[in-house]
């Protein structure tokens, strides 16, 4: 069976205030043509169909058009909700859409109920595991703790229990939206940390033939049977080195996996430039980036006059401008944003305590209290978005 694995469309998202709907439409045109030309048997979308719980109307219309085109091809499609989606909203009409071959899996309670497709070699069971917010689904799944590893493990227990009832030789595919250990994140993914632990081990998917993952925006191989397709478009400059793509998976009669990486259209390349303003404007080696989307970091000791206006004369698609002056007199000159980069909410909160209360950092009890407060805020937010 030939499977096309994609995820993280984020329909309705902009890129530094640039409307991306036209580029998202171009990607969906490419996806439809790929399904047709490569004779795909099933399409998988591993979550974050939309960028937010209540998407703009234009994004909903684009999604609706994509569903109609996939249904017209007669190729079954399996989709799950991600942490950006409203599971309830995305799941509206799921039973009716299933009659047209569009299978939406947004209810955690249905993790153990697969979409079963058949090829010349028998059945393939597709299990959709939507994004599982630990505090919200722990009781539903009977997990021991409200942690990502425990709730995903409980969901996989349901998958394994159902597989055990299927005829021998039934192949299995899982769609999941999660942060799996070994994956490389980028700046454009929403933090799903709960209790300080966001990632789950890859071996939670042991026993299935293929795990089609969503959430991380870089295409990557965790194991030969566990892969991220990544987002089809870049949504932050941290993705400057990403090669956006989808996975074409051939699932053999014995469950063997053959994977081919298919590139996605690039609407405009990204570039990160760093240096003094006059150097960036004069450097002939930067000519290749004149039509790229640009993030520029200026290192001039003093802020230049009208830097954005001058940059856009040469680089008209400059979208982001930052200032990191070169160190003066050998001393560090680090911006606030730079100090925070790469730090978790928990670390930032603990640093704040140490800052306002000199010589006394947060102790173990206070760190636990901060962690619990952050978890409660995230759970609250997730509950509002899933409503």
Let me know the number of strands.
Answer: 19
Q: Mind telling me the CATH class of the largest domain? A: Alpha Beta
- Name the CATH homologous superfamily of the largest domain: Metallo-dependent phosphatases
Would you give the CATH topology of the largest domain? Answer: Purple Acid Phosphatase, chain A, domain 2
What's the tally of helices?
A: 11
The 3D shape can be described as globular
How are strands sequenced across the largest beta sheet? 6-5-4-1-15-16
Rg for CA atoms: 23 Å
Mean pLDDT: 91
Distance between the termini: 36 Å
Mind summarizing the main beta sheet? 6 strands, mixed
Along the chain, the helix and strand elements come as EEEHEHEHHEEEHHEEEEEEEEEHEHEHHH
Query: How big a fraction of the residues is strand?
Result: 15-25%
What is the number of domains? Answer: 3
What proportion of the residues is helical, as a percent range?
25-40%
The helix-and-strand class reads alpha/beta
CATH architecture heading of the largest domain: 4-Layer Sandwich
Poorly predicted tracts of residues? none
Family: Belongs to the SbcD family.
Keywords: DNA recombination, DNA replication, Endonuclease, Exonuclease, Hydrolase, Nuclease
Domain Calcineurin-like phosphoesterase: 1-218
Protein name: Nuclease SbcCD subunit D
Overview of the structural elements:
The chain is an alpha/beta fold. The chain folds into three domains: 2-263, 4-Layer Sandwich (Purple Acid Phosphatase, chain A, domain 2); 270-340; 345-386. The protein is built from eleven helices and 19 strands. The protein has helices spanning 21-37, 57-73, 87-90, 94-98, 134-141, 148-163, 277-282, 307-314, 336-340, 345-356, 364-386, and strands spanning 2-6, 14-15, 18-19, 42-46, 77-80, 102-105, 115-119, 122-129, 171-177, 179-180, 199-200, 210-214, 220-223, 226-228, 245-251, 257-263, 270-275, 293-298, 318-323. The strands form five sheets. It has a six-stranded mixed sheet. The chain has a six-stranded mixed sheet with strand order 7-8-9-12-14-13, covered by helices on one side. The protein is globular. It starts with a strand and ends with a helix.
